[in-house]
From TrEMBL:
<dbReference type="InterPro" id="IPR036390">
    <property type="entry name" value="WH_DNA-bd_sf"/>
</dbReference>
<dbReference type="InterPro" id="IPR050536">
    <property type="entry name" value="DtxR_MntR_Metal-Reg"/>
</dbReference>
<dbReference type="InterPro" id="IPR036421">
    <property type="entry name" value="Fe_dep_repressor_sf"/>
</dbReference>
<keyword id="KW-0678">Repressor</keyword>
<comment type="similarity">
    <text>Belongs to the DtxR/MntR family.</text>
</comment>
<dbReference type="GO" id="GO:0046983">
    <property type="term" value="F:protein dimerization activity"/>
</dbReference>
<dbReference type="InterPro" id="IPR022689">
    <property type="entry name" value="Iron_dep_repressor"/>
</dbReference>
<comment type="function">
    <text>In the presence of manganese, represses expression of mntH and mntS. Up-regulates expression of mntP.</text>
</comment>
<dbReference type="GO" id="GO:0003677">
    <property type="term" value="F:DNA binding"/>
</dbReference>
<dbReference type="InterPro" id="IPR036388">
    <property type="entry name" value="WH-like_DNA-bd_sf"/>
</dbReference>
<dbReference type="GO" id="GO:0003700">
    <property type="term" value="F:DNA-binding transcription factor activity"/>
</dbReference>
<dbReference type="Pfam" id="PF02742">
    <property type="entry name" value="Fe_dep_repr_C"/>
</dbReference>
<dbReference type="InterPro" id="IPR001367">
    <property type="entry name" value="Fe_dep_repressor"/>
</dbReference>
<keyword id="KW-0805">Transcription regulation</keyword>
<protein>
    <recommendedName>
        <fullName>Transcriptional regulator MntR</fullName>
    </recommendedName>
</protein>
<dbReference type="InterPro" id="IPR022687">
    <property type="entry name" value="HTH_DTXR"/>
</dbReference>
<dbReference type="GO" id="GO:0005737">
    <property type="term" value="C:cytoplasm"/>
</dbReference>
Length: 149
């Protein structure tokens, strides 16, 4: 093995405690925001496509019960990401629109990267849905740079 190849090897084994803590902290944080991002992205897509986002449509698209959606919509409202108007559906606040835009863009970069690696479009779409929430800014930038080549 040449020196460059040796330098590119990934070290396997136990990492130091601080690194371990930070990686798990980051993963837990990503999981907490994952649902918020999925909901605001879907709400933005429904508004763009149908002109409105209704609770029933959100439940159908996510494959969950309406009470589950109602609970999450209350959380999104408390976070300042949506506004609900009686009999008029769900609307994104400016903060919600920005989160949806960033989430959608991150998803598109990850999906495009996976397709560039030769992953089928259908698999890339599905895999990107999970990866997009856990990819760091550094990794996302590397994906972008790769795609520009």
């Amino acid at each position: 093995m040449n020196d460059q190849a040796k330098g590119d090897e990934i070290q396997v084994g136990l990492v130091d405690a601080d690194t371990h803590v930070e990686s798990f902290r980051q993963t837990r944080s990503n999981r907490r925001t994952e649902l918020l991002e999925d909901y605001v992205e879907l709400i933005a897509d429904l508004i763009d496509h149908d002109g409105e986002a209704r609770q029933v449509d959100i439940a159908q698209r996510l494959g969950v019960a309406q009470p589950t959606v109602a609970k999450m919509l209350k959380r999104l409202a408390a976070e300042g990401l949506i506004q609900q108007r009686r009999y008029r559906g769900v609307f994104l606040t400016e903060e919600g629109k920005e989160l949806a835009r960033v989430s959608r863009e991150r998803h598109q970069v990850v999906e495009s990267f996976l397709c560039a690696l030769g992953i089928s479009p259908e698999t890339a779409r599905i895999d990107a849905e999970g990866i997009e929430h856990h990819v760091s800014a550094e990794t996302l930038e590397a994906f972008r740079a790769f795609l520009k080549r």
